[in-house]
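Regression test case RT-17, inverse folding.

Input:
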């Protein structure tokens, strides 16, 4: 069983492996679970070719998620690469989420579509300001719609989510639930914004 990381030692990077879910020793990883997904009643009249862009997870300064500065990237202490590996499983899971949501008429990974859609994802882990407070997980997902003919950016959106973790964290079980909850909340927020934007429906 992985050793617990002391709350006061947040500047130590978590041990090796690429970025979004996984145990600290680099053994089996924890892919994002796309379920459950509720299909939207506000489907957009497009097919999209989906691509997953940059994906990252980071420890931030204690209490950073509670301050007014929206730029959590300005408060990063160290990466947590083990949380976003293997990338291929994240790509598959995000594709499953988008397909099940039914925001678009059709979703493809290869081939042609009406629009190109690129998603960027980031998880921020806040140790909180006291050793007996719970960890806070904040997720951000950015979406970029591009013209498949010339790559021109057409529209962009951002979705945000937050979840409460354990008082201490040391292995995959401590991260799995809050990472999934935060990412689900961010994706739901993101796609809800798309579905309610009448300008997107008439590109």
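Golden output:
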């Amino acid at each position: 069983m992985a050793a617990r990381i002391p709350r006061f030692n947040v500047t130590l990077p978590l041990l090796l492996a690429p970025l979004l879910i996984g145990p600290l020793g680099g053994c089996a990883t924890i892919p994002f679970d796309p379920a459950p997904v509720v299909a939207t009643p506000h489907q957009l009249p497009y097919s999209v070719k989906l691509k997953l862009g940059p994906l990252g997870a980071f420890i931030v300064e204690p209490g950073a998620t509670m301050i007014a500065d929206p730029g959590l990237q300005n408060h990063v202490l160290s990466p947590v690469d083990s949380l976003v590996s293997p990338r291929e499983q994240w790509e598959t899971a995000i594709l499953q989420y988008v397909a099940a949501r039914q925001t678009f008429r059709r979703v493809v990974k290869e081939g042609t579509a009406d629009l190109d859609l690129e998603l960027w994802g980031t998880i921020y882990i806040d140790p909180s300001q006291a050793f007996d407070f719970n960890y806070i997980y904040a997720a951000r997902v950015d979406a970029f719609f591009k013209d498949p003919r010339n790559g021109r950016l057409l529209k962009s959106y951002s979705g945000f989510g937050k979840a409460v973790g354990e008082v201490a964290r040391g292995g995959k079980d401590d991260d799995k639930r809050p990472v999934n909850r935060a990412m689900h909340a961010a994706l739901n927020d993101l796609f809800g914004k798309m579905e309610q934007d009448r300008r997107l429906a008439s590109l």
